[in-house]
Design goal:
Strand content: over 45%
Structural class: mainly beta
Radius of gyration: 52 Å
Shape: rod-shaped
Number of domains: 4
Distance between the termini: 195 Å
Helix content: under 10%
CATH superfamily of the largest domain: Immunoglobulins
Number of strands: 33
Largest sheet: 6 strands, mixed
Number of helices: 1
CATH architecture of the largest domain: Sandwich
């Protein structure tokens, strides 16, 4: 009898041990009729970004299940880790969604025992180009030279909530010119850049994504440890794909024109002459001139500054020859252009010397013979007279200095009777260093 009771006790203990073992290995799952609601702090992500996911489990009675209830996550894009998580005292299980660098929309669901996320309430997170909401494009500089130039095109890609999108491919196209690269991935600031080179007005468009998307505003779930959880709000469902584009128009600077006009008559070596530089700034897309630099072709140059309209400048060439005058226009946008013209410099006209003598009809005996002279010295325009001297030959006085005579003067000289042929010489030295002589011959009777 004692043996039989002992055997029954051993069997009972074994049964209890088996029951305890079964409780330890059986997972704790939500009962049938429970609900699972998934939320996240955002419904858009850049490629390679992640976000925490909250699975809120509620039993049919409206209370959270026992803590430690297992929830399993699945996703159509990227990964969720851990794939299975336990609920806390408020029925919340936490996991992290990692986009994995693939563009598209991740549909995330969760299950626990008899509870599962309904298809209509699955958490959807747009990743990369699927999350695009707006593309802002600008050019720096906003205009280029009509002779051709380059500008940096920047596309700032934003998601549907106004945040920057990283690692999103951007496709650039242009109506004119060439682009340094046409497909660029945004950086950590959500910016993709290319360089446009053009000599024509061009519209550059940056495209992201495939088909249309819309903007949504995510919500943050409430409730936490130690509080009674409230029903989380599921973020607005994002589009499965997204598309946005932006454009910027790069204008062409209309450059100023330059016309160089030399003197109407060939300039003379050693004499100043006037040259006209006519600068015209277009009224449409015109850029003001910053400086006009003139190279005279003789080794000298000068800056005329911000010329607008006509500028008259004098220049003196020391020697004869053909010279190339070059004007270099630099405008406020940094555009540079050059215009050249040739000028031939000739030998300048010498001063004109006229000597008109008045010789007596006869000189008798030993009486002296007085001869008068009307002397006229006419310099060319721009030339001054430095010195005039007259040599009368055998007369008294033999020479006479007249200084810087310009115009006419009456002179006289006394010759011996019967002096015969005499040569009168006038020597003129001008302001450009030349010496000019004039002669006349008289016969003393």
């Amino acid at each position: 009898m004692v043996t039989r009771c002992r055997n029954l006790a051993v069997a009972a203990l074994a049964l209890l041990a088996f029951a305890a073992s079964a409780c330890e290995v059986s997972p704790l799952l939500a009962p049938t009729g429970s609900t699972i609601t998934l939320t996240s702090s955002t419904n858009v992500l850049s490629a390679n970004d992640s976000v925490e996911i909250v699975a809120q489990v509620m039993e049919p009675s409206g209370t959270p299940p026992h803590s430690g209830t297992l929830v399993t996550f699945t996703t159509t894009l990227g990964t969720v880790a851990p794939a299975t998580a336990e609920t806390d005292a408020n029925g919340r299980a936490l996991a992290r969604f990692q986009s994995g660098g693939t563009n598209g929309t991740a549909v995330i669901t969760a299950t626990s025992g008899g509870a599962t996320t309904a298809a209509a309430s699955a958490l959807r997170i747009s990743v990369g180009s699927a999350a695009v909401g707006r593309v802002v494009v600008n050019a720096n500089p906003a205009s280029v030279s009509a002779l051709g130039g380059s500008t940096t095109i920047s596309a700032n890609v934003l998601d549907v909530n106004g945040n920057v999108l990283k690692q999103v491919p951007v496709s650039f196209t242009s109506s004119a010119g060439t682009l340094s690269v046409q497909l660029v991935t945004t950086d950590n600031n959500g910016i993709a850049q290319t360089i446009l080179t053009t000599a024509q007005q061009a519209t550059v468009t940056a495209n992201v994504g495939a088909t249309g998307g819309s903007s949504t505003t995510p919500t943050t779930p409430t409730g936490g440890t130690g509080t009674t959880p409230t029903t989380p709000t599921t973020p607005a469902t994002p589009p499965t794909t997204g598309q946005a584009s932006g454009s910027v128009t790069v204008t062409v600077n209309a450059q100023a024109t330059l016309v160089i006009t030399p003197p109407t008559t060939p300039p003379s070596a050693g004499l100043p002459s006037t040259y006209t530089f006519a600068v015209t700034v277009p009224t449409t897309n015109g850029v003001p001139v910053k400086n006009l630099r003139v190279s005279w072709g003789d080794g000298t140059s000068q800056d005329l500054g911000a010329v607008s309209g006509n500028a008259s400048v004098q220049h003196t060439y020391s020697d004869t020859g053909t010279y190339t005058i070059t004007g270099t226009l630099t405008d406020a946008a940094g555009n540079v252009q050059t215009v050249s013209t040739a000028v031939s410099v000739i030998i300048g006209a010498s001063p004109t010397i006229n000597i008109t003598p008045s010789v007596p009809a006869s000189c008798t005996g030993t009486s002296p013979c007085v001869v008068t002279f009307l002397l006229q010295v006419t310099p060319p325009t721009g030339v001054g007279i430095v010195d005039v001297s007259v040599s009368f030959g055998a007369a008294t006085p033999p020479t006479q200095g007249l200084g810087g005579l310009t115009g006419s003067a009456t002179l006289s000289a006394t010759y011996p009777a019967h002096a015969g042929a005499q040569t009168v010489a006038v020597t003129v030295r001008d302001t450009i260093g030349r010496t000019t002589q004039g002669f006349t011959t008289i016969n003393i009777p």
